[in-house]
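Lesson 9: reading folded outputs for more than one chain in a single document. The general rule is that every protein is listed as its sequence immediately followed by its structure tokens, and records are never interleaved. Here is the first one.
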Amino acid sequence: MNSIANLKSVLTMGFALALALSAGSASAKPAGSKFTLTSPSFTQNGPIPEKHYWNQMGCTGGNVSPELHWSGAPEGTKSFAITVHDDDVPTGSGFWHWVAYDIPVGVTSLEEGATDGKLPSGTVEGNTDLGKPGWFGSCPPVGRKHHYTYTVYAVKTEKLDAPKGATAAYVGFVLWQSTLAKTTLTGTAGPRK
């Protein structure tokens, strides 16, 4: 009788140990690098050079998109999306300066000025808050510094289900449903005098 009780005890402990080990391995993150976004143009919370500013509404920049590099996207990523958002515009919802999606999964950088006809094949530019697609560089108001957040999204689909001409908010909603991970880099612009 003791041997049967001992066997049950050993089996119970073995089962509990196996369960604990499998639960631990299931929750462990796979080895790899963290999803990051960098730019040689500016650092986190650093100033964005004026060549990246818009060239209207009192701004005199070159309206050139900055060079961007990202790495460490999670397994299962099938495409990327990028947004640029001015967090400080007094609209209640900020201001969307750029929306691009369906960037092929093999792309991990954009050269400076890529928005000037040099985006990867298949990339879709969504509408900014100017009501049209394309790059709209930073343009801080006179006397105020603004923060511009660049976000790269690792997307679990090759194509976003967003209709042509969709607003940035609509694209953001679709991204919210389709994003595996995201990484941000925030630069500052202004104050202009």
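And here is the second record, again sequence then tokens.
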Amino acid sequence: MASHTFWKGYLKLSLVTCPVTMRPATSEADKVRFHVLNAKTGNRVISRYVDAETGKPIDEDDEVKGYPLDEDGKHVLLEDEEIEAVALDSTHTLDIDMFVPSDAVPWVYYDKPHYLLPSDPVGEEAFAVIREAMASTETVGISRLVLYRRERAVLLEPRGKGIVVWTLRYGDEVRPDKDYFDKIDGDKVEAGAMKLIKELIDKKTVPWDPDMVSDPVQEKLLDIISAKKKRRKAPAKAKAKTEEKPSNVVNIMDALRKSVASEKASKSR
């Protein structure tokens, strides 16, 4: 089922403009959600801002944003108008500022995907030209847009007949992988071990299927809810399997040979 339009505006590249709509490529609408209730009355519980010192509720008109200066509780106060003044001039135009090679942006910067498509038959030609030009030059577009109440850098990637718009994480949100991976030893890999690992990977390689990332907890929760609706006893909780703790001393070649042999045996069965 197609998701609803949550952004509508214009895709712009220099003097070329076309009307577009954007829809989230992912959804959590079908996830099980719970309300917090008062166990004594069965009524829903609501949350309110309260003063951290007095414990008294705060009126919405008295709420202001503050940037902490120190641990003594002092803040620089900012008015909504001051915050809005630094935002983008337009929230309805996706103006492509620049292009970069399609493989230049590290995967860790990619955040949320969205589908971008023309909203008017008149603009389909301009949309297609921009999309195909990016595809043929193997580039992606970089722009900025206000999404989810925040200005974000976005990446436009041609995909089939449409364009995928990825929100990008900001530079100060990304930690360099070298800070972690450079500490790992073991650059040299034994040729025999590599051969057995490749054989094991080959035997375990299967076509991609979305069921591989199904949510078993979600399914079990729905079973419990369904049983309670029908006033039946909830399904019994399956006993957790006792996990064997791996030994710290491992002969990698022996482990690989046993793994390959086990895979062969399971395939023959």
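What the second record shows: The beta strands are 7-13, 16-24, 65-68, 75-78, 93-95, 98-101, 110-118, 139-147, 150-159, 162-168.
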